[in-house]
Amino acid sequence: MTTYVGESIPRNDGYDKVTGCGKFTADIYLPHMLYAKAVRSPYAHAKVLSIDTSKAEALHGVKAIITWENTKHIPFNTSATMVTTNPPEEPIRDQYIVTNEPLYIGDEVAAVAATSEAIAEQAVKLIRVEYEELPAVYDPLEAIKPEAVTLHPEIGKTEVNNACGVVVHIDVFQGDLEEHFKNCDHVVETDIELPRVKQCQMETHGAVADYKNGRLDVWCTTQTPHPTKMILAYALDMPESKVHVQNPPYVGGGFGVRIGISGKAEIIAAALAVEAHAPVKFIYTRAEDMLCSDTRHGGYLHCRLGADKNGKFMAMDTTAWLNTGAYATFGIELLGVCGACGTQGTYYIPANRYTGYPVYTNQETAGAFRGFGTPQGTAIVEAAVDKMAQVLGMDPIELRHLNTRREENPLGFWPFPVGSIGVDECLDRAALAIGWKEKRGRKQSGNIRRGVGIACGTHVSNAAPFCVDYNAIVMRLEQDGSLFVSSGIPEIGPGSTTALMQVACDLVGVPFESATMQFGDTAAGPFDIGSHATRTLYTVGYVMSCAAKKLRADIFGFASKMMEVPAEELDLKDGIVFGGGKEMTIKKLAYQAHLRGHQFIASECQIPPNSLPWFAQAAEVEVDMELGLVKVLKVAAAHDVGQVVNPVLCESQVEGGVAQGVGYATREEMTYVEGKGFYNDGFHKYMLPTADDICEIETILVESRDPYGVYGIKGIGECGVNPTLPAILSAVEDATGVRFEACPLVPGRVLSGLKKAGLVK
Amino acid sequence: MTTYVGESIPRNDGYDKVTGCGKFTADIYLPHMLYAKAVRSPYAHAKVLSIDTSKAEALHGVKAIITWENTKHIPFNTSATMVTTNPPEEPIRDQYIVTNEPLYIGDEVAAVAATSEAIAEQAVKLIRVEYEELPAVYDPLEAIKPEAVTLHPEIGKTEVNNACGVVVHIDVFQGDLEEHFKNCDHVVETDIELPRVKQCQMETHGAVADYKNGRLDVWCTTQTPHPTKMILAYALDMPESKVHVQNPPYVGGGFGVRIGISGKAEIIAAALAVEAHAPVKFIYTRAEDMLCSDTRHGGYLHCRLGADKNGKFMAMDTTAWLNTGAYATFGIELLGVCGACGTQGTYYIPANRYTGYPVYTNQETAGAFRGFGTPQGTAIVEAAVDKMAQVLGMDPIELRHLNTRREENPLGFWPFPVGSIGVDECLDRAALAIGWKEKRGRKQSGNIRRGVGIACGTHVSNAAPFCVDYNAIVMRLEQDGSLFVSSGIPEIGPGSTTALMQVACDLVGVPFESATMQFGDTAAGPFDIGSHATRTLYTVGYVMSCAAKKLRADIFGFASKMMEVPAEELDLKDGIVFGGGKEMTIKKLAYQAHLRGHQFIASECQIPPNSLPWFAQAAEVEVDMELGLVKVLKVAAAHDVGQVVNPVLCESQVEGGVAQGVGYATREEMTYVEGKGFYNDGFHKYMLPTADDICEIETILVESRDPYGVYGIKGIGECGVNPTLPAILSAVEDATGVRFEACPLVPGRVLSGLKKAGLVK
């Protein structure tokens, strides 16, 4: 029985954000603070021959300039990647503070700190860089050709040119894959080409760095304060204990784009602060944010799926060639999740192979974005499943039910128990909400045609086994019994700290009103891998449950003496310790403990398990056959969240994800113009759906109660976006009869597809 | 064997302080910050009949005004007093945010927050307060008379009028005290009158408070962040978890004056911030600091000492009537320490009674100041011992040796083992350093006469059993093995955080260069009672030793698996784990642990023991008989510190204490002018010794190695000041033949004493 878990308690950062008094990185002002600007390469691939900074240095107000010449040459990875297989591997370290061989248009070759942004900007223009242009490659399928220029010869020879790694998952439980395919009655093949899309978080990347007395203090927009601390310490060759990273405390959205450092805001601000002996602020412009920080991985996927005559899947083979851009960042891990969650998780297939290539190109880097590979993997697999349903003449939902994973099915890559599986309930409830039975397969002939589609899938509730994933936490009662929780986890917008305090207060048994969480600060909270991977509530909740157990034991030990009741008979709920017919408030107990020299305190460090959250989304679309316009009317999003902690916050996560999925499927795309770079240097050139463009979203929360996590909770953060694109593609096919194999479904692409199919002239 | 303990490592706050980039409270600027000023009573005792704030409110820029009408009426104690006897008692709570019955000239009746200090000041002048003046009393001996006005009728009837309590220590081991006196061959009686003196810390009291979203953030000059958090939460009726108190991180000296809140800077800034919905800064002027915050307790002490014919002390009876001013603050605890350390600690006397009265008067409040009662107690007892030596015709050092405490002597009030006693060594080494044998008892007749004197004593290494005293701490290794220690302890100037990190690095076995301590912040560190009571290094070192044990066990458990060596065979020193013929760096181990989801972390909460530090100081003075000028030539200060951690820092503590002792004995005094208040509203009106006025100080560090504390450490912080005044009085007597029974020995008093003795005309 819980008091707070399950309640829509208003978010505790609401007041700060609504009144505008909540502090973000741009709000940080320090005495004598300087402002940074970067010198960025105009070439997609070039060698810096010389840099003349003399004119810039002479400019009044310029306090420091960094180039390749005066910065450390310790390669690092800007993401929080920490590949953990057995034995643990090191991340690919292929970036520098600033480079002498830029690999994309926008790559940093120098940076300036000056007394104002205007002066810094002027100084940037006064820096003369002489480049030698080098051959460039932009498409992953081009880049893997042996004759293509190799962008990172320093990371060693890889099997496939420019692939920064090859990720293979194989679940073949007997015989080999091709043998399984041979035994199939039906085999279908599908392709999909997916765009690069941008996170478009409201707050651009930013950092303020202050270095003095051997200690570096950084306020920034990162989603991962502790890993950011590690990256900065590594790249600057400092002890980690002397690098202090904190959110200020708020971050205006993340969606994955600042797992690790935020673009390069932190490291450049820090390097300039060291050089200038003064605090330095580096706030990315929207253009820098759009053009010089990670995107979602776009690229190509192919799937071959085989089934027996009843529709039982027997074999699947999927390959992904995704564009990781100029640097590896999360390339390996993301291609790993793409295969694991997107292709191996949802269905039990006796022989299932996945091969993923994260491919370097001379473009802006791709990294983490909500879903982290699962949207791509789900898109190709769900397309293949739809195609198989057509071949078999089966209802797509029926076919899915036939093949979805059961608890007892083996899952090769997964080192955890599978836990509860709510995917079938999600499918049925999403179908019901969209009106599947009435609407699917309507014969239509007019200009405006409607269709419904569905897609399902699974994801993770934390980053393991793809990344190191664990949390440490300190919980203590203050001297009046109020709960104080210290965690390194940040609040990047979802209301995680509210939901976490609901969990914490129920776990400890104290009132929510008097509890506080200190978050997003490496000095205040011990290690936490950060807010990403759908993990925040799930994993921090888990470690909280371990710490709360210790804390309660400490409380009951003391209370037992005060109350003269055996500790094992005591319980604590709503701030009252009771048992043996007696009770005492925690307020009184904590103060009595204080008078006797004791604070109730517990620290814990734990590797959480990982539970699979499940989902199915059904979409209804309307296609204008003449204009090629796809309008999404409704998405019914059913999500197995294990146990809802805060219904309003949970629904808002689903809604946000669906909105991004609608944009991904129908509108958004980073468009590359050779010689100029990406076209989309602002929201005015990037077709983010507005409130007007978003369809009705019906969120259905399924509670399968995970048997391993705390209170049955699973993750939700990334799930909303995962199946939206394939559900929409399926609905468009239902409306038009055309299966599109590339996104987004902008009018040009739709019209050309409809024409090709002979449906319009 | 230690690597860092014992070394004069340069203080880690040195760079910040020398370059001016270290941040203090006055350096804190927040957006939209307001500035506070207080309306202070011009009467020593009055009732506020009405306050008209209308004109002030109308002034442009005035944002909030607090008076008795719109503030909470929850009485509190501004000090960190938490009386702990068995059963625990509550502190005397006799103050309010602002008062409607001011009890001293300067007492706060209202406060203003405005957009500038100038406007706030102007607003203060526009507030019209109508008072009814009430009878006042200024001297403790007057105030205890039954006919004197009772200043705090609300705290209940006390045995003696205006005494906020009576503290009695009795150690009588058989029979009764008077019986023991009857058996004495010699009985002497002495009196002493001691002045109020001021801490004169460089940074005046100050606070910046920011209240929003139900949470209060306070940056301030307190020496005790966690107790300050408790006081603010209590007075503002908030949960403690929502009050965040931090030093910024530096504090410009404390000497006891800001144990608890800093004057009333924090509480007034906080109340105004709540009222104004904006951050408020309240920095005391030097005049406010001098006139409206705690002083050392002045007053009267009397001692009767009896000995047998051989000089063995048989009975002692001491009484103190000290002026605690308008409010109790630390009155009870300080009078307790005065008796315990000053009268009961140094000598073993079979029958020993002490009675202490902290007496309310209509003056600025007295509270904690380095030594906390021990200087007063030591002054009276050492004077009595000197007198006894004269009566017996014995050398004062010989007489002291005969009576100093031995480990086996019972000590009634002391709940801890006595530990090591280095007082005899201190006496001998101080005597040797001052040239006792050659110089004591010189017959002189000229105008300039020299003399030497000596005094000895003991103190505490923490606040127990007079106050609650304990520490919690969190120690963790970062992912590169660097040590990060979180403590609520502040750095108020002595270099405590440097010395503590020397201890921590030796305890854990890691390099000092890579270790960091987070201090003075209630959000970053768990409960710590603060930096006072000579306790910082001793008690935090102690709890560190407990945490380090846990941390090392955690490390060895992991290392055992990695290195395949049983945990019990492993050791860690200088960053290397070794044993069983193998070794591995802690850097590598911590990173491997990280990759496996583990951070080495330990939290601890412990009540430290309390060890008695010992000391003897010998002074040489020169008295100009014509001018009445006492010049201190040298103080040889021998201190039993158990074990020196950082010799330079340790010596600087002794030197600072001696300087304050020289001022106390010869120059400093707060002078009260009836109807006007204290005369000393700045350093120009307060005779603090300058560098020119300070004598040669020879510091002798005696290492008796406490068997109970970590590394044998005892406290040192307060000890330097404790015996200086009686040593100087003794030296002046040696020079002139006159025993002065009042201080400071300013020319007027000296001349009048010499005249009274017929030595000058």
Automatic annotation (TrEMBL), chains A, B:
Keywords: Molybdenum, Oxidoreductase. GO terms for molecular function: iron ion binding; oxidoreductase activity. InterPro entries: Ald_Oxase/Xan_DH_a/b (IPR000674), Ald_Oxase/Xan_DH_a/b_sf (IPR036856), Ald_Oxase/xanthine_DH-like (IPR016208), AldOxase/xan_DH_MoCoBD1 (IPR008274), AldOxase/xan_DH_MoCoBD2 (IPR046867), AldOxase/xan_DH_Mopterin-bd_sf (IPR037165). Residues 19-135 form the Aldehyde oxidase/xanthine dehydrogenase a/b hammerhead domain. It comes from the Bacteria. Pfam families: Ald_Xan_dh_C, MoCoBD_1, MoCoBD_2. This is Aldehyde oxidase/xanthine dehydrogenase a/b hammerhead domain-containing protein. It comes from Synergistes jonesii.
